[in-house]
Amino acid sequence: MNFNDIFKSNFIEKVSSFSPLDMVIALAVSFALGLFIFYVYKKTFNGVMYSASFGVSLLAMTLITTLIILAVTSNVILSLGMVGALSIVRFRSAIKEPMDIAFLFWSISAGIVTGAGLIPLGVFGSLFIGVVMVLFVNKKTTDNPYILVVNCTDEKAEKLVNSAISDNVKKHMIKSKAVTTSGIELTVEVRLKDSTTEFVNRISDIGGVTNTVLVSYNGEYMS
Q: Which domain of life is it from (predicted)?
């Protein structure tokens, strides 16, 4: 054993064997992909309440995943330890929007692919996914179903309501009918003509109708 062997360090050898250029390139590409995912999320969001912090977390998740994959691919032993360490992590945040899950997996996948050095796959794959998201998520349809709830006092009012619904909507289907001592409650799924809800006012003016509510499937009250 000589003087050099005493001060020999595996940690220093690992630092010298790692390429700073690869790290800079991978993190830069990962940052660009994370920004792109953040922009697509902001562009396609159509939920109830937009969360800017979730969009930033998508960017951070892409960078963090890239950093982990860079460490894993540089050392096989480290990769085994990393798998064990990540297996104890538990995420308990509730996902409110189904599309948020797709964006989370997109961020993780982009980070994994970029960290593995497959930069063309990460770039072109993210561009393709982004185009699909923008085209299909933002696609509006005028044939959205709505739920119409009508309270009638008697059968005569019920017949007039059914006749008014048939004449003013494109398509309808009775979902439920509740008969009580105070009256009749109808729950009807309707598809509107030309996205107009004027017929709801006409139904409300029918004699024997005590209450009329039109609700979209996302919980928004239309009348």
A: Bacteria
Kindly report the pTM of this predicted structure: 0.59
* Fold category of 145-216 in CATH: Alpha-Beta Plaits (3.30.70)
Q: Are 123 and 62 in contact (CB under 8 A)?
A: no
Q: In 3-state terms, what secondary structure has residue 15?
A: helix
Query: What single-letter amino acid sits at 117?
Result: G
3-state secondary structure of 79: helix
- Write the pLDDT tens digit of every residue in 34-91: 999 999 998 888 766 777 788 888 899 899 888 888 877 766 555 555 655 555 455 5
Neighbours of 68 (CB within 10 A): 17
Closest CA to 60 of 38, 42, 82: 38
* Spatial CB neighbours of 132, under 8 Å, sequence gap ≥ 6: none
C-alpha span between 114 and 124 (Å, rounded): 11
List C-alpha distances in Å: 212 to 189, 204, 209, 219: 13, 6, 8, 15
Among residues 72, 75, 67, the alpha carbon closest in space to that of 14 is found at 75
DSSP annotation of 221 reads B
Q: Is 219 left (phi over 0), alpha (psi -120 to 50) or beta?
A: left
User: Cα-flanking dihedrals φ and ψ of residue 140, to 5°?
Assistant: -95, 145
